[in-house]
Specification:
The complex is a heterodimer of chains A (90) and B (416). Chain A is built from two helices and six strands; from the N terminus they run βββαβββα. Chain A is of the alpha+beta class and 90 residues long. In chain A, the strands form two sheets. Chain A has a four-stranded antiparallel sheet. Chain A has a two-stranded antiparallel ribbon with strand order 1-2. Chain A is globular and about 40 Å long. Chain B is 29% helix and 27% strand. The longest helix of chain B is centred in the C-terminal third of the chain and has 18 residues. In chain B, strands 1, 2, 8, 9, 10, 11, 17 and 18 form an eight-stranded mixed sheet that branches. Chain B has 416 residues and is α/β, with parallel strands linked by helices. Classes of the chains: A alpha+beta (90), B alpha/beta (416). At the A-B interface, strand 3 and helix 1 of A face strand 12 and strand 15 of B.
């Protein structure tokens, strides 16, 4: 697999570290309650198609990336800086 | 037909014309007392024990492909009971005891070979950890021997003991561990279940569940609707998709684990050797091929194939541990899709739907669990109560804080 890092260009996937589902960007508010945090930490959609996930460009620019990837074909469909997604919300 | 030396002899004299197909290929009936979704090792053993231990005859196993065509045919065939945590240790201990009597039980040669499994240690800290693990295994009633440096060197002289990145300090030998013939386990349980009247229905994919008033009523399949009193789901690797049809969300991610086999060689490696520090384990099959693997690729996948970086990493670890295998030619590699749960331990439980039971989250420990998984899941389905050997694999343990996290990695499924 190769990942098209927005800062570094298309690089071998072994430069990157997989950091789990993209849902981890959607942290519940501190007072959301135990059930919301249980859902956030433990429950997964786990689709057999397009999965939203976080990759960390550990051996490159060290940016966190928010990626859409087809987990049945390993094809990367989109790569964005996680930071830009967070800033877009503010 | 009951298999025996006499049958082999008799058929040898009569042109081997007496061997018959070992299971029927029935049309699905309109209703069953119990429907098991998934005709792999766990589904087949569940059906077998439901029929044998609980006297339920009206059972169907629905398999979307062919029997034993999933993960029970894609693993590295290792059997062991070297778990430490309460919840896991009694379960795998129970499973190993069932393995030890399985051939007599099924009248089928599953080629169980208790050749011993050794965990290698590479530091004083790891030796201390294995001393503790070994003690806990022995307290559970299983076997473990802590070997020092000299003993490992004498018994496994072919390892790279000194010049490696991780010099070998010792190891924990578990003699009752070993390997079994993976396909034969599925076939043996399939034959045993069929002989007790279970309908094994292949090429029959479940497309939906009918649930009325919180009670399971039946399953829609590619071969029509089948009514069911109870339904058990044994589809590890695809649990999230099948569970979703019943409205369940599960604490599971699917990941790919690769394995590799070389050309057949003369007897070379008499045990199962686990090199945890380098993410590598190896054994030699009865055909002579070196069967080995490492860790997960590390990202979600349903592709049943991995990528080259992990193949390279596993080969490097193998070379670091036993340089002699460098000249062996690798024949094949393949990937299996693992139900990775959030604490690395399985889920065997009831659900919010009456009559709907789940068996999933096996991570990469599903093969050795096949006999006990079927036994305890059948117990749960038939009686509604958890078997004593599996009363902690609860679906809600993440909400109640009763995780069984053997590696201590927390909610990171790609690291368990």
């Amino acid at each position: 697999m190769r990942i098209d890092c927005p800062l570094c260009g298309c690089r071998d996937s072994r430069e990157f570290h997989y950091r789990g589902t993209g849902k981890l960007m959607e942290r519940p508010a501190a007072d959301a309650g135990a059930e919301a945090f249980h859902d956030y930490i433990y429950m997964r959609e786990n689709p057999a198609g397009v999965n939203c996930e976080l990759w960390f460009h550990e051996m490159g620019c060290r940016a966190w990336l928010l990626v859409e990837r087809d987990v049945s074909s390993h094809e990367f469909l989109s790569v964005r800086l996680a930071e830009s997604v967070t800033r877009g919300k503010q | 037909m009951r298999y025996s030396a006499w049958e082999v002899f008799r058929n040898g004299l009569t042109g081997n014309k007496g061997w018959k197909p070992v299971w029927r290929n029935p049309e699905p009936k309109s209703s069953y007392d119990v429907v098991i979704v998934g005709g792999g090792g766990h589904g087949l053993s569940t059906a077998y024990y439901l029929a044998k231990n609980h006297g339920i005859a009206n059972i169907a196993v629905l398999e979307k492909g062919y029997l034993g065509g999933g993960n029970v045919g894609r693993n590295t065939t290792i059997v062991r009971a070297n778990y430490m945590l309460e919840g896991n240790s009694q379960f795998y201990s129970h499973s190993l005891k069932l393995w030890e009597n399985l051939e007599r039980e099924l009248n089928y040669n599953v080629m169980l070979s208790q050749r011993g499994q050794i965990l290698l240690a590479h530091s004083d800290g790891q030796m201390d950890r294995f001393a503790r693990l070994g003690n806990m295994m022995r307290m559970q009633g299983d076997d473990a021997e802590l070997w020092g440096r000299d003993e490992v060197r004498a018994k496994l002289p072919y390892l790279n003991h000194d010049t490696a990145r991780f010099p070998i300090y010792g190891g924990l030998m578990h003699w009752r561990g070993g390997t079994a013939r993976h396909d034969a386990v599925a076939w043996g349980y399939a034959r045993g279940a069929d002989r007790r009247g279970v309908d094994l229905i292949q090429n029959c994919q479940v497309t939906g569940f009918r649930i009325e008033g919180g009670q399971i009523r039946g399953v829609d399949t590619t071969r029509g609707y089948i009514a069911a009193g109870k339904v058990g789901m044994c589809v590890a690797g695809r649990s999230s998709q099948v569970g979703e049809m019943a409205g369940l969300r599960l604490p599971i991610e699917s990941h790919v684990l690769q394995a590799f086999v070389t050309e057949g060689l003369k007897p070379l490696i008499p045990h199962v050797v686990s090199f945890g520090m380098g993410h590598f384990y190896i054994s030699q099959s009865d055909k002579g091929g070196l069967v080995f693997g490492g860790d997960l690729d590390g990202y979600n996948s349903y592709a049943q194939r991995g990528n080259l970086p992990m193949a390279e990493h596993v080969a490097e670890a193998g070379m670091a541990l036993m340089p002699m295998i460098g000249k062996a030619r690798m024949l094949r590699s393949w990937g299996g899709i693992m139900d990775m749960s959030m604490d690395g331990s399985p889920i065997i439980d009831k659900t919010s739907i009456d009559g709907f039971f789940i068996n999933c989250g096996w991570c990469y420990g599903g093969f050795k669990a096949v006999p006990a998984s079927g036994d305890v899941f059948a117990h749960l389905i038939a009686t509604g109560n958890h078997h004593a050997a599996a009363n902690r694999f609860l679906l809600d343990r993440f909400a109640t804080g009763r995780m069984i996290d053997e590696t201590g990695n927390g909610a990171t499924p790609n690291l368990h």
